[in-house]
Specification:
With 396 residues, the chain is of the alpha/beta class. It has three domains: 131 residues, Sulfate adenylyltransferase; 151 residues, Rossmann fold (3-Layer(aba) Sandwich), CATH 3.40.50; 95 residues, no CATH class. Helices cover 36% and strands 22% of the residues. The chain contains 13 helices and 19 strands. The protein has a five-stranded parallel sheet with strand order 12-11-10-13-16, with helices on both faces. Strands 1-5-6-9 form a four-stranded mixed sheet. Helix 4 packs antiparallel against helix 5 and helix 8 packs antiparallel against helix 11. The longest helix has 16 residues. The radius of gyration is 24 Å and the shape is globular.
């Protein structure tokens, strides 16, 4: 996009840019643009927009003294450049500027304004007191690319039943594998939306995608699972996440969404002597939502089981707790293969600890049986062979 010196600028970050692009591409429909004050107030009050569920107002209120000055002075009809990291990425034609309460805003998103909540703290840092509405355009191609990839994948196999799974995969483990396989049983195509955050993480999106891509290509039926990025911006971080997941999945062309029963956004509650959940409040979202029970490894069943079907107590169960498994990786420890497939562990550790061993070839040939032919090996090869030794049981 060419720079335009005649326009004043609003300075936004990449997270705001991605969120604006999601709406512009129709992924947050019924929301397709920024709301004015009247619309924003109504949505925040009712959770309904154009007769369909949307959990909170969709606004642009960038923080910072420069932005506040520009917004205070902005007149209806004025065009402002949208700038990220000193580069123009779009424009907005001002319809209205109105004041907001940042604490009320974060409360609508997260269900709390408690500063001990990390999402609340981070969002308040980037949120200003003035919002702008009006027609806008932005440069952000990834979402349209994802839409096209899903469309092509459906066409290639004539898929009718398309199921979405939103997954962080930090890290990808055996329970994730079981969830995907189980979902495939009822689907022509499974679309895994791999969450792409805007905060630093020890396990980057690129590594997580590499892992997912490896698993899909080597252990699943060809052309029936597609891994695509989902811009995991701040609007998805709150207690309304499951509603937004359903909206996004539907607008990307999926007719089913699978989530875990322990998903924080399900929110079971009692109403008039009956158990209800957030699903009972959804209006105008035509997508089937299926909840899947938690998977554990049972040392009596000797396999991966659902907590709903295993007759043994929790003291026989090994949980697939992502944060705990990630702790092993951070320490450079190979998780047992019952938790993470050895090839997956090898990819993750070789990425987290590049050039870790001073003399890899010496270690390889001292510990690993080989045919006598000297070959060059990678750290990934070494981790895989080392895991095989861990699994050897004749002396244990």
């Amino acid at each position: 996009m060419k720079s335009s010196r005649k326009n004043r600028a609003l300075f936004i970050d990449k997270e705001a840019l991605a969120t604006l692009a999601l709406a512009k591409e129709g992924i947050l429909s019924p929301v397709k643009g920024l709301m004015n004050k009247k619309e924003a107030d109504e949505v925040d009050k009712t959770g309904i927009y154009h007769n369909k569920t949307f959990p909170f107002s969709f606004i642009l209120a960038p923080g910072g003294k420069k932005n506040e000055k520009i917004l205070k002075e902005c007149k209806k009809g004025e065009t402002l450049d949208l700038v990220v990291d000193q580069k123009k990425v779009g424009e907005i034609r001002c319809e209205e500027v109105f004041k907001i309460d940042p604490k009320e805003r974060v409360k609508k998103i997260y269900g709390t304004d408690d500063m001990s909540h990390p999402g609340v703290t981070e969002t308040l840092k980037r949120l200003g007191q003035y919002a702008i509405s009006g027609e806008y355009r932005v440069e952000f191609d990834q979402i349209s690319v994802t839409k096209e990839r899903i469309k092509e994948a459906k066409k290639a196999i004539g898929a009718k039943n398309v199921t979405a799974i939103m997954m962080a995969a930090k890290p990808f483990h055996r329970a994730h594998e079981r969830l995907i396989r189980l979902t495939l049983e009822k689907s022509d195509l499974v679309v895994i939306f791999l969450l792409k955050p805007y905060s630093r993480d020890c396990l980057s999106y690129e590594v997580r995608y590499k892992v997912m891509d490896y698993f899909v290509k080597n252990f699943l039926p060809k052309n029936r699972v597609l891994v695509v990025p989902l811009e995991n911006t701040y609007i998805f971080a709150g207690f309304n996440e499951v509603i937004l997941d359903a909206i996004v999945a539907q607008n990307f062309g999926c007719n089913r969404l699978v989530i875990g029963k322990n998903h924080a956004g399900v929110g079971l509650y009692y109403d008039k002597n009956s158990i209800k959940s957030v699903f009972d409040t959804i209006k105008g979202i035509n997508i089937e939502i299926e909840t899947i029970s938690e998977f554990v490894y049972c040392n009596e069943c000797k396999t991966l089981v659902s907590t709903n079907t295993c007759p043994h107590g929790s003291h026989h169960h090994i949980s697939y707790h992502s944060e705990s498994i990630m702790e092993l990786f951070k320490l450079g420890i190979l998780p047992p293969a019952v938790l993470v497939r050895k090839e997956i562990s090898a990819i993750i550790l070789s990425e987290l600890f590049p050039a870790r061993f001073k003399n890899l070839e010496k270690l390889y040939y001292n510990f690993i049986p080989f045919s006598g032919i000297m070959e060059e090996h990678s750290e990934k090869d070494f981790y895989i062979e080392l895991m095989k030794l861990y699994q050897t049981t004749s002396l244990t």
